[in-house]
Amino acid sequence: MALSMHNKEGNNKQMDTSKYVRYTPEQVEALERVYTECPKPSSLRRQQLIRECPILSNIEPKQIKVWFQNRRCREKQRKEASRLQTVNRKLTAMNKLLMEENDRLQKQVTQLVYENGYMRQQLQNPSATTTDNSCESVVVSGQQQQQQNPTPQHPQRDANNPAGLLAIAEETLAEFLSKATGTAVDWVQMIGMKPGPDSIGIVAVSRNCSGVAARACGLVSLEPTKVAEILKDRPSWFRDCRCLDVLSVIPTGNGGTIELMYMQTYAPTTLAAARDFWTVRYTTTLEDGSLVICERSLTIATGGPTGPPASSFVRAEMLPSGHLIRPCEGGGSIIHIVDHVDLDAWSVPEVLRPLYESSKILAQKMTMAALRHVRQIAQETSGEIQYGGGRQPAVLRTFSQRLCRGFNDAVNGFADDGWSLLGGDGVEDVTIVINSSPNKILGSQYNASMFPTFGGGVLCAKASMLLQNVPPALLVRFLREHRSEWADYGVDTYSAACLKASPYAVPCARPGGFPCSQVILPLAYTVEHEEFLEVVRLEGHAFSPEDVALARDMYLLQLCSGVDENAVGACAQLVFAPIDESFADDAPLLPSGFRVIPLDPKTDGPAATRTLDLASTLEVGAGGARPSSEADANNCNLRSVLTIAFQFTFENHLRDNVAAMARQYVRSVVGSVQRVAMAISPSWLSSHPGPKSLAGSPEALTLARWIYRSYRIHTGGDLFQVDSQAGDALLKQLWHHSDAIMCCSLKTNASPVFTFANQAGLDLLETTLVALQDIMLDKILDEAGRKILCSEFSKIMQQGFAYLPAGVCVSSMGRPVSYDQAIAWKVLNDDDSNHCLAFMFMNWSFV
Q1: In what ranges is there compositional bias, type Polar residues (predicted)?
Q2: Looking at residue 605, what is its pLDDT?
Q3: What is the distance between the alpha carbons of residues 514 and 539, in angstroms, rounded to a whole number?
């Protein structure tokens, strides 16, 4: 008994001493090495560690497990503390920024109150306007003149003289700072730009000033010198910048530099000319350590030479603009950005002037783009963004830049790049330009391997059109997610063939389209997800021997941007280029795509949520559709310009054939986009609760009632059980019916085409309501089905209905579909006249 008690006490003593172990520095070093390799080792790994490290032999495996748990906990606490410190620094800096913004607004309010009082006094004493020459009157009138035109006139100075250039630069600096931190421009904050530690910053646009201006300020975790280096590389973040040439650099006595520069920018659409700028840029450091990069155009008014004119370009003016970069306590920078330009809007057609008179578009394209680019690089540098695929962020950014640049080159078609106009077919809706001198563009986005060794070049078919009441973001999202609605697999195959040694023959239009499906593989995205890069795999399906050669998987590199409906003034764009399976970093790219730019400012109210699945417009009900008055209020006069450009390689002996194919294809795409635009137009959706059918067809509610009533008249039974025929009950039952129900036109002089299908019918046909009317009845029936329908057609017309035996039909994608039975019946309108033919396929499934 005593022996057992002694053993028990010994065990307790051992347990007590095992609760805490004091590790030697050598033991800690050994454990840290393992932790670096594996922060959470398994039980077997811990036991192996004890065997391999003699210095750990006196430690129990359980204690080693506890050490790793504590180590992971300390690491987690350290990261959390670091994160909280970073957030605290951001909040402190943002608070400082907001206080400065509040001071600026208070000054602006004081100035407006003062001017308001003066104007009230002038209105009360009209005679004083002609006799009052007091200092107060002169000062106020001068302030008003500066507000209306913040660019005063300057005497002519010799820009070839460094002293003259320095005077211009110092004036530019003063005027820029008055816009960035003062009240030289009446700034109005953009809607939806809420400040915060994770937001882009404070964004404002000009009101009642010459030209268009935008201003932004925000926080980044980069040092001022690095920020300045990024911002001065304008082509890397300003997608509309074609070239930026620094003609000369002059050092100044205060350690700064003055640069004479020439910049060309792309035109956003084929309907307007490109712009160029002749500017002086001044980089200097202020007394408080802030870096300033300011810039303005050299004109006769500002002094200095204006630069020689360039063909195909309209000279635009950059008013004092730039970047103020201030160091932030604890690291990082506070950036103030001002962009102020006069784009000579009067030189473009009146309908396009909003593109050049909108401060919101300028804010999205330049001001916010610069701030987003710096924030993107800052987060990539800190490791906050992880990309898959093993590619560096800089490589992915280069892909995005090359896609945008190639698309802009195609839209603009500059002669100095080798582009020339190809004669048309008499109709001016599609423009064809060719580049038979690839050596002029090999240094940009093209590659010598894309051109046949025996002669060839690049052909571009492009067109622009105006859209009414179509949200750009919604349209581009639909084009991205429903490629089969507008694209032709045969044309995609031809485009992909430019990456091969021997291209395919020129494709011809396929009436039913080639069956294919797309799989979108995300590649990269920006911080705010306003732009994302992805790889699209087009999977071909062959159901006939002649299609086997063409049915193969293809890959596209695709860039999509501007798909946020709440972004004010944002340009929506979908650009893609064929790539091969290897997808090297220097892969040749021949971009094509769409660009939609809003012409009118959006309303202040939030955009209504709309689905891209047009079939869901049948989900009508008390809360399913907005009143037309509300839709009109939110979308009245919403206009945008759509630009389409498709590029193809060609061999010289096939140039005319490729041009004819490209022209026909772009016209087909334009027609498809117009149908999609009409279907997703908010004003159309609000007034049409059913699907868009052929001209003269009834509304969806009426059509559902005719289908149900005609089935009961002809067969004597009910198509489905419904409690009430009032309202939308019939339509809902028809839409959700488990069997595929579809209607086709009933014309003796034309092939029947589908005009309506319920959800099951759309699933069977593998299509949407937009493309439904492009599918003909005889294309989905096999040979046996067509023969049976022809033999039963007279019975259907006389008796009103007929049962069809089990068989096989084909979806629009070419997939075979089996069904157990089908029934066809005439649909009669309210006058008992034949309206259409309805079919119901029972117990169908894909083979």
Answers
A1: 124-142
A2: 36
A3: 11
